[in-house]
Design brief:
With 162 residues, this protein is an alpha+beta fold. 36% of the residues lie in helices and 38% in strands. Strands 2-1-6-5-4-3 form a six-stranded mixed β-sheet, covered by helices on one side.
Length: 162
């Protein structure tokens, strides 16, 4: 009986430690996504690059089609620099984050100043991690921002990060 209690106590302790480790990884990854988006909003490709793996991949998901937009840290920094130069008013706001192990999903609302004034649209992104670095970002097609938001989306405009 004593051995059974020792075994059950050890099993519960191990399960608790595993849950704490998982939560710690999820918290770290969620924090990294928030830092990544803060660097995006600061238009700081170098700070963004500190958070990504050397072999970062940026992918667009559209239905059953997966398109690799870029690969590698150098290509990432160059693309972000060009993007910020072309859209100095672009910003992204996190509406929701959900972490599950090595992935963090985010609903982001992109906003920018267009020829007709302020524009906004939302998109789903999934950030995939390798250790503490973002190794892939999957962007899904943009959508109109729900009516409960004061912003309006302009169909056909480019989403932040695409």
């Amino acid at each position: 009986m004593r051995n059974l209690r020792v075994f059950l106590t050890a099993a519960l302790a191990f399960a608790a430690l595993a849950a704490v480790a998982q939560n710690s990884q999820e918290d770290r990854n969620t924090k990294a996504v928030r830092q990544f988006l803060a660097a995006f909003n600061a238009h700081d490709p170098a700070a963004m690059a500190e958070l990504v793996a050397d072999d970062i991949r940026w992918l667009s998901v559209n239905g059953s089609t997966l398109t690799v937009e870029l690969e590698g840290k150098a290509a990432f920094v160059e693309a972000m620099s060009e993007y910020f130069n072309s859209c100095p008013s672009c910003r992204s706001e996190v509406r929701s984050l959900m972490s599950s192990g090595e992935r963090v999903s985010a609903v982001e609302v992109a906003s920018w100043m267009g020829s007709n004034g302020q524009n906004a649209q939302q998109s789903m992104a999934v950030y995939e991690f390798s250790g503490s670095r973002i190794r892939a970002v999957y962007y899904f097609p943009e959508e109109a921002v729900p009516d409960d938001d004061d912003s309006t989306a302009q169909p056909g405009e480019t989403a932040v990060g695409s």
